[in-house]
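Mods, move this if it's the wrong board.
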Amino acid sequence: FHVGVVTTDAYSQNTPGCNQLGALVTKTGQGNCGPYAEGFNFMTEADNLAQAFACAGLVGASGSASERQMEAMMRAVDGTHGMMGGCNYQFVREDALLVIIIITDEPDNASVGGPIDWYNTVVAAKFGIPENIVVVSIINTPNGQCGSNAVDIAAFTNMFGINGYMSDICLQNFGPIFDQAIAIIDVACDNYLQN
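Not the wrong board. Structure tokens:
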């Protein structure tokens, strides 16, 4: 597996040269997290995932108020930073399921495009095969318990049909959410389509 973290803006604490929207996090205000065990800006099975992810996930909450969750997601997978020597070099693989996990308590009112544009960009990153993508959104779901301000993110998630899963971010325990998400990921792995 390849595991990466991106932030909702151009993260100023990240490694110089990678403090751009959609670049994988290797450094936070807490210190250096990467390069990780295999020398990349993403984690693999060679890393102590709990330790490495805990470091990369500590990005704080003091970034731009103009959050661009979906644009960051697109830039993470669309090749913007994927060239040799780039911040996301070799992150997206041709032969692997792409699992996107969105965790936010804010709507996305600043990203370029809308749900269909975001969908098309992500699907293009997986060679036009939407079945090879799973989207898990932990958000303020429409008609949910936390308010319903993430309508566009919900619309994007729903475009993936049975490979899209949403839950409310204000729940006290995310364990059951991830248990359900893992079941969806398992089925998607079983049904993986070669391009």
